[in-house]
Amino acid sequence: MPSLKTEERHDKSVGLDVMHPVLALRLLASGQQAAAKAVDAAIEPLATAAQIAAEALASGGRLAYAGAGSSGLMAMTDALELPGTYGIGHDKIVVLLAGGAASLTDLAGGYEDDVDLARKDVRDAGIGKGDCLIAVSASGSTPYALAAADEARQCGARVIAMANNPGAMLFEDAEVAILLQTPPEVISGSTRMGAATAQKIAFNMFSTLVGIHLGHVYDGHMVNLKADNAKLRGRAVRIVSDIAGIGATEAGRYLTTSSGSVKIAILLAAGAEDVVEAEAALAEAGQNLRRALSSVTAH
Question: What is the rounded CA–CA span in Å between residue 158 and residue 181?
């Protein structure tokens, strides 16, 4: 097996087990912070990847995430947040975690070597033309991630790869390669630490930009959120109030009329005659609130 940066020993970890706890935690914190900085070098490929994913979703395709172990968990975390945060349909997001539900109670390592399982997962999910799959692996050589990416590519999907080692095998046939070149882990090979931290940051950035491209962000607001609890209903009221420049009570009334749709409520407050006109403006604007507002206020 070739030498992997993610398996190398950290030069300051000697004696970690006998360090004063505070010093040990400082070293661990510095390792996380150094890993986070690795994302800076991946800005351009992340931008390209988000554009590809947004194009797939806007065209009716799906966005799939594939990974094993800690990397798979980072991917799953990002995927599961998208419907609530940006109102993307659950049927448009696919999570392929090696081992499936079993890995949520026992993150056994054997699943990551199962290439047949990976190919079956991709086929069973119906991943194909019009879809986008992002495969993630800290080492960049995890068999499950490699097989999932290869199967998705053969089925016609666009493939994005994310890994923490330069020259990773996962990058070889990917349309976009996102390299997060994190330094050696303080606990050698424990990629749930620095490597996963960088992956989580990268995924946060990736999916947020996808949401922006889809028109689900206005200034700093998530205007396509699914307000399905008290906290989010309160947030929806504040968003409508802030963007429309109206009081909370009035914002609440518009949200009731719009059946909870933040975008529709804002368009009603801006002068749309009714829900039908607001929906038409959004459809014409490709669900982009800013463009829809321009058409409504121009009347």
Answer: 23
Q: Which of 81, 175, 277, 279 is catalytic?
A: 81
- Please report, for residues 26, 55, 124, 197, the alpha-carbon distance to residue 33 in angstroms, rounded to integers and kept in the order given: 10, 33, 39, 9
pLDDT band (50, 70, 90) for residue 16 = low
Burial of 261 (C-beta count, 10 Å sphere; 0-12/13-18/19+): buried
Place of tokens 């990976």: 118
81 is catalytic: yes
Q: Global pTM?
A: 0.91
Task: Summarize pLDDT for 244-268 with one digit per residue, the tens.
Answer: 999 999 999 999 999 999 999 999 9
| Active-site entry in 7, 8, 44, 112 | 112
Plot region of 225 (φ>0 → left; ψ -120 to 50 → alpha; else → beta): beta
Chain segment 214-226, per-residue pLDDT in tens: 999 999 999 999 8
250 given a catalytic annotation: no
Q: How confident is the model at residue 101 (pLDDT cuts 50, 70, 90)?
A: confident
